[in-house]
Design goal:
Chain lengths: 267, 480
């Protein structure tokens, strides 16, 4: 009895999580204009998604923005974490706590304040993309810091000194010794930064150029609009994003399993 | 100049950390080319700090470090011709053994074929031929240690610094590595500066030992010097096992300590306050009537090569190591050959005595309670609900196994006529005028000599009682 209840609970939870996206996925392969009656299989939504210039430009723009700001955020976050680790105790604590604030802070506040500072105070035009990129980097860098820090703490701190002792300059020691130790943290920070940037809505709305849209801002506007072909094409977009995420997660798990198996084999 | 043979000189090195803690205090040392020098001391004595200043990881607050007569003050670590073997090896985990060892040579842009040859040679030296392609994680602790040594040696440093390199190895491996390190030193002719807290390691390997405590050098000398002629009570206590007593010279080559008068070979003026050191292996147990002092056997422990026998004579405990066993409760005499008694001037005249933990788990001396918290003295200990004590790991502390050594300076003790006012009574057996005060030696009812400074004149033979304020005492724990 208990076993059945356990199973049932698990199934209900999984349905709760996956049913909405599954419904959307099913409907993306139909010619339905509204969720409701299924009218028959069609790939029209996918054709629209990948042939409408407006949509493809938006997707490409979002991806470039995510990659670019994640790249910058990863550099800043990693250097910040290394710097904080090798600073004195007081400075380290200060930097770490200051880093917490943007993590906890509401995105809407971050976005709005960056908009005020860069656009209103410094008169930087939104069309330069600088406010947008700055906003996304501000959003992501603290998370990179947080995912790199534990790796640095795990590292044997004397290997940096050992490198200096063997004649490496501080820069060589940093690139050849310290950074290879924390690469896993940097990669997961980078991945986190990409998803954060893709997800972001508030910062983008406040800082993006008028003629540019990220997926988030576009979807919000499109759902308000009346173009049904675009709306249903977004179902296809959601399905594609979901499929990519599932593939990545499966890939990561398979790799982790292989690694585990490999290390067992070695022993 | 004679200095030419000194490869490194430390002159007046002092290191004060940001929080005001003085880790190293006016450290002076000269190391000759090719010497094996060991910095020896308990943890926190400043030995590793000193090593890190030589390596360049720390800057001295004052003083200078000369390498071949030139100051290396402004050289960063990567420009100093010294290499370090770290305590936890500090191998680069993402590189294989070859790349680990080749790292230093690559920094110097050494040609590839030369690197290959040199790496093979040091691997041969540390007996790990063919390990080039192995990864660090597949090596045992001992092998990693050898690689760490090889990685440092391949650069042919002028000085090799070793920071407790054998600390993480088990006893057998440690002994083997000690011999191998010593062989390597003899073979290569490189100067070794070695840091350890293990006195046996230091005695086995070194040409010269620098004993440190609380940031200060206590003694510099060969292993034999340090063992046979310790300069002060700290060195005697730290190196090997020792019986240490406060005492006084009572005549030409005669010293009184431990409740008896012994002949000795160190000549100091009569009345001088002294510290006498006797190694346990030099304490001879005889029939009661043949001994200089008499006592009762308190405990006998079999140690394999010998017995360790503790004898209680009056209030003093003497430990003897002998091949002949004895029974607890036996009455014995104690004799020491004159040249086995090492007499030192009691430089700072600090008085040491032992206090006991009584059955109520309070501190007691000569039947008087010392009003202080035992739990504060024994770090991490706490009092259980039934009044007994437990240590940091929660285990019961057996008061019979622990003694508390109390130290108090001569100026912190006051003498009084009121015989029952003080912790202990005695008679003044010597006095010296020291300009602005008198220095008295008081021979107590417990057969100990105390040194007391007082600005007023008392007479020889006066009976006095000693007032010792608790807040002036410092306590150290000694296991029995």
């Amino acid at each position: 009895m208990v076993k059945i209840l356990k199973r049932a609970y698990l199934i209900v939870m999984l349905l709760f999580i996956y049913l909405p996206i599954l419904i959307l996925a099913v409907f993306s392969f139909t010619s339905a204009t509204q969720i409701g009656a299924i009218r028959g299989f069609s790939l029209q939504n996918y054709v629209t998604l990948f042939t409408t210039p407006e949509l493809t430009d938006m997707i490409r723009g979002t991806l470039f923005l995510a990659l670019g700001s994640a790249f910058l955020a990863t550099i800043l976050g990693t250097l910040g974490a290394i710097g904080a680790f090798y600073s004195g105790k007081k400075a380290s604590t200060l930097i770490t706590s200051l880093n917490q604030v943007p993590v906890v802070n509401a995105d809407v506040v971050t976005g709005f304040s960056i908009c005020i500072l860069l656009v209103v105070v410094f008169h930087i035009s939104k069309d330069t993309f600088i406010p947008l990129v700055a906003g996304h980097v501000t959003l992501c860098a603290p998370f990179v810091f947080l995912s790199v820090m534990p790796k640095i703490k795990q590292m044997d701190s004397s290997i940096y000194e050992a490198a200096l002792d063997l004649g490496a300059t501080p820069l060589t020691a940093l690139f050849e010794i310290v950074i290879p130790q924390i690469v896993p943290g940097i990669i997961s920070g980078f991945a986190l930064a990409i998803t954060l940037s893709l997800d972001d809505y508030f910062i983008s709305t406040y800082t993006k150029p008028a003629m540019f849209d990220t997926i988030s801002t576009y979807v919000v506007n499109a759902t308000k609009g009346s173009q049904t072909t675009i709306k249903t094409a977004l179902w296809a977009l959601s399905t594609v994003i979901f499929a990519v995420v599932v593939l990545i997660v499966i890939g990561m798990n398979v790799r982790a399993l292989q690694k585990e198996g490999g290390s067992h084999a070695k022993e | 100049m004679e200095n030419n043979t000194n490869i490194i000189e430390l002159r007046g090195i002092t290191k004060v950390y940001e929080d005001g803690y003085t880790a190293v205090d006016n450290f002076n040392l000269e190391v000759k080319r090719g010497e094996f020098v060991t910095l020896l001391g308990p943890s926190g004595c400043g030995k590793t700090t000193t090593l890190r200043m030589i390596a360049g990881f720390l800057m001295p607050s004052s003083g200078e470090i000369l390498l071949n007569g030139k100051s290396i003050q402004d050289l960063p670590p990567y420009k100093r011709p010294v290499n370090t073997v770290f305590q936890r090896y500090a191998l680069f985990p993402h590189m294989n053994i070859y790349n680990n060892i080749a790292f230093g040579l690559k920094q110097k842009k050494t040609p590839k074929d030369v690197i290959g040859r040199k790496v093979r040679r040091v691997l041969d030296l540390v007996d790990l031929e063919g390990f080039e392609e192995r990864s660090v994680s597949t090596l045992s602790g001992g092998q990693q240690q050898r690689i760490a040594i090889a990685r440092a040696l391949v650069n042919e440093p002028e000085i090799l610094l070793l920071d407790e390199p054998l600390g993480a190895l088990d006893l057998k491996m440690r002994k083997e590595m000690q011999i191998e390190l010593k062989d390597m030193h003899d073979k290569l002719g490189i100067t070794f500066i070695y840091v350890t807290h293990d006195q046996e390691e230091a005695l086995t390997m070194s040409d010269k030992i620098v004993v440190m405590n609380e940031g200060k050098i206590q003694q510099i000398g060969t292993p034999e010097d340090i063992y046979n002629e310790p300069k002060n009570a700290f060195v005697a206590d730290f190196i090997g096992e020792s019986n240490i007593f406060n005492g006084m010279m009572t005549g030409k080559l005669r010293a009184r300590f431990c409740g008896g008068e012994f002949e000795c070979v160190d000549d100091y003026e009569e009345g001088t306050h002294i510290t006498a050191v006797v190694r346990p292996e030099d304490v001879e147990l005889t029939k009661p009537e043949l001994g200089v002092i008499q006592g009762v056997v308190e405990s006998v422990i079999f140690k394999g090569m010998h017995y360790e026998i503790a004898v209680l004579s009056g209030k003093n405990e003497i430990v003897s190591q002998t091949v002949h066993s004895a029974k607890v409760g036996d009455h014995v005499g104690i004799r020491v050959e004159p040249d086995n008694i090492h007499i030192m001037l009691a430089e700072d005249h600090t008085n040491f005595f032992f206090a006991d933990i009584n059955k109520d788990f309070k501190l007691e001396y000569n039947g008087h309670l010392l009003d202080t918290s035992v739990t504060r003295i024994i770090k991490g200990s706490s009092r259980r609900e039934d009044g007994t004590l437990q240590d940091a790991s929660g285990e019961a502390i057996d008061p019979a196994r622990v003694r508390i050594q109390v130290a108090i300076g001569p100026s912190d003790i006051q003498m009084t006529d009121d015989q029952d006012a003080g912790l202990v009574k005695g008679t003044i057996s010597n006095l010296i005028y020291k300009g602005d005060h008198y220095s008295y030696v008081i021979h107590t009812e417990l057969e100990q000599d105390f040194v007391v400074n007082d600005e007023y004149l008392w007479n020889l033979g006066d009976s006095v009682s000693l007032l010792m304020p608790i807040d002036k005492m410092t306590f150290t724990i000694k296991k029995k």
